[in-house]
């Protein structure tokens, strides 16, 4: 299967957001899709120019990323995108598993009917994109699915904690996508979506576990090769 990469950011049609939040999402997407490579320098002026945003919101977004480890401050070298640590990535997945189980359980219990429908639609789009071999569409639907599930969970503490871990997992996928089975990933997301949509917390948690199992097996193939 031939997969395309580097999706364009999806335009936000919701309520007007703070410029720093827009900048954060734009930079996050560049890191997740390897447009900003691990270990590469991060130049505030270049980011501001490429995003069309002012340097103040870009600076605020970069500081937030330093605080969660996506960007590191190197003495005499400025800001750099953090490197992918293969051994540490298993800990990332282990930690994410705990949070994803909690978020799935909360979403299954608290989601509105429209949110449940939207969650399943996103998973269906992931399956279709996987069948077509379109990584762009697959990853955009994945991102949209995360957003709706996070809103549905109504658990901001868990969502804030899991967000940087999701970015780490996304860029790991982009770095080693040739080793992965996108169809298997789509099936795992569908299991999660159906569990949440059903309102059955045990089913939703089982879906979260299946998704994390998939990510862990994918990571171990890379580490053990």
UniProtKB/TrEMBL annotation:
Keywords: DNA-binding, Transcription, Transcription regulation. Pfam families: FCD, GntR. PROSITE patterns: HTH_GNTR. Coiled coil: none annotated. It comes from the Bacteria. Residues 17-84 form the HTH gntR-type domain. The keyword Transcription applies. The keyword Translocase does not apply. GO terms for molecular function: DNA binding; DNA-binding transcription factor activity. InterPro entries: GntR_C, TF_FadR/GntR_C, Tscrpt_reg_HTH_GntR, WH-like_DNA-bd_sf, WH_DNA-bd_sf. PANTHER family: GNTR FAMILY REGULATORY PROTEIN (PTHR43537:SF45), TRANSCRIPTIONAL REGULATOR, GNTR FAMILY (PTHR43537). This is DNA-binding GntR family transcriptional regulator.
